[in-house]
Here is the input.
Amino acid sequence: PCSDLRRLRTTSFPWRCCFLLILQMPLREYLRVSCAVLALLPLVSCFVSTPLNPSFQKSGSGMVNPRPLRFPSSSSLSLHPLRPARAARINARGRAVSRLCMRAGESDEAMLELQNGSDIRGYAVASPGGKPVTLTDDRLWRIGFGFAALIKERFEAKHPDGASKKVFTVAVGRDSRISGERVSNAFVDGLTAAGCNVVQVGLATTPAMFKSTCLPGFGTDAGVMITASHLPFDRNGLKFFLPCGGLAKDDISRILEVASSATFEDAKVAPSVGSVTTKDLLSAYAEDLVESIRSGAQQGDRPLEGLRVIVDAGNGCGGFFVDRVLQPLGADTSGSQFLEPDGMFPNHIPNPEDHDAMQSARHATLESKADLGIIFDTDVDRAGAVDASGEEINRNRLIALAGAIVLEEHPGTTIVTDSVTSNGLTSFIEGLGGKHHRFKRGYKNVIEEAVRLSEAGEPSFLAMETSGHGAQADNAWLDDGAYTVVKLLIKMSQLRKEGKGLMSMIETLEEPVEMTELRFKLTNKKDFSIDGRKILNALPAYAKNQEDWHVVTPNYEGVRVQIGDTWFLLRMSLHDPIMALNIESEEKGGSVAAAVALEDFLESFSDLVDISPLSQMVDVAHGDEECLIPEDDEAPDGWQCIINALQKDNDDLRRKVAELEAQVGK
Here is the structure.
């Protein structure tokens, strides 16, 4: 009864009284009355001319027709008729309908805040001391409805006369998060209520969900992955795909706009009409990867025979890669770890950028004496690796390795990366005859820029971020961590014939001595973008008056400044009230020197931005023992830079690093 209270305001007076009376009953009486009502319901329905749900109308054919949904503007999407037997089955399973409990005309503007660039993200689990749940069943139901409207709009644009008759099919998968099943069910209810057929594929990966639109035996009109990537267990989100690729920011805005205002006539909720089936997508996707390696390696059905390749899946969705990809290709996978999906991520966060995660993969690789270690993020759209000697292959190294492979296949191509890549990577790519196009952060930005360049006559076959996101033209520009690993495995099998390893391909890559990243909070969260632009707009003029400061051009994000053998990039975060500062230096002490010089500039904006992490870095480097330990949530930003700067120093400095880590409680 409590769950039905939400609908009382749209229920007739007699039924409302019945609900309220039930709430006053003891449990024993409630059960007795419930059994009696269920027994008498068929008899009562014979004498009642109007169905219990007033949104149903009887048609001449004996079928029940729900009233059509009202969408804002031109996005009307009528429901198809629902057979009473089908409705009964849905209700019996507890899937029926409606979690939408808004009065007609109400709007949920807070839904618009769920947009995270080209994804939707929010809090899906209530935890002690955590944020309130924002991905509620109501909102997920309406998001499903909004996505159905977008699919129809896209189809209408291409086929003006056929959209009304088209029944769309959407594949829905999820990662290992504990909220995945609830989020999936609520979202699917919204899709089926809008007339879409749904293929539930269960545990999947983000790249696999895109592949659902083109793999033989699937060919769906759209795919949706329920995931929040590497974020903590209490988060979740949705990524959307059409056959042409992932949705853009404007598409997500449109979905949320429709969802926030979606209402039913008289605020009545109609039951779902689309079908729901289940299918194994992950096996079909894995087989596609296996065939890619076999055809690329040209060494028979088991090109990895004799190689030990281990996987650290971090309890995300990447465990399938062991038994469905590596083992069929002949690889020895003993030593792989954390393959079982566990949405609490008990061992480490599945994230190739995370220090602890990479150390875990490194330890497993060395312990098992593997030829290669692989690490995926939660939904397998990012990857990293570790070679046999324990050298980490991520960030600039991973881009350099992937770039070297692509340049062998496509000489002279342009490689698009995000804005924080090193000068050494540029020299490496140019040394191989390629062109480095340093663009913006955000994997969608990088991919879309590579596509734009190709269409403009500048061939580009690789787009990759330092985060591990990577897409290639020969894989439909799909952001796919597993495919990145596929290319590494093919090359690894080929190099083995020459007695070489993967690291031999990037021996000439020059790497910085120091790498630092700091994040500063903008104090005005409401107008943070205005304040951030104000700071960035003032920096070039300041740099012109500084000795040996050179503003790097072209530059597409923030302001990048070269100071001798050191560079820094000050930029805005993509979505948050944060300014990020990256510093790299080819000499010891260069990062601190740049930090000191930049501190003078940023202090003039102390009313707009909190630069305490920068000040702490300078104070610690100068031996200021009175420097305060930052709060726990700021510790990685305030101290990781010092840890990075000292890692290559002598044993005495290494002991200081350990002391800092112990103080912070890292």
Observations:
- Residues 371 and 388 are 5 Å apart (CA to CA).
- Residues 1-13, 44-106, 264-271, 625-638 have pLDDT under 50 and may be disordered.
- The longest helix spans residues 137-158.
- The chain has 19 helices and 26 strands.
